[in-house]
Design brief:
This protein has 101 residues and is mainly α. The protein contains five helices and no strands.
Length: 101
């Protein structure tokens, strides 16, 4: 993908110029791959934790509450858990791993 970058284009939001990325792509591939994999692994772990918390409410969902009340609870919980999963901070270990790349 980096090979297709045009050298004369303006830098993106990261302020990295395309010619720099192209010239050092061999050096950048492994650290970027590690970074992307860390991000993907972290996102998966966050989704898993969020759903685990949600299913911790199973007693409420299997209770005699009305269907309307259960739907309202579901509509409230899912966005809250999704927001929490997207905004959890990185751990110290994860920060150290990223700094090593």
């Amino acid at each position: 993908m980096i090979k297709r970058f045009k050298k004369k284009k303006a830098p993106g939001p990261d302020n990295m110029e395309n010619n720099l990325l192209k010239d050092f792509r061999e050096v950048l591939v492994k650290p970027l791959e590690k970074l992307f994999n860390l991000i993907l692994d972290e996102e998966e772990a966050r989704r898993t934790k969020a759903w685990r918390k949600f299913w911790g409410l199973e007693k409420i969902f299997s209770s005699k509450l009305s269907r309307k009340a259960k739907m309202k609870l579901f509509e409230i919980c899912v966005p809250v858990l999704r927001y929490g999963a997207e905004t959890w901070a990185l751990t110290g270990t994860q920060v150290n791993d990223l700094q090593k790349t």
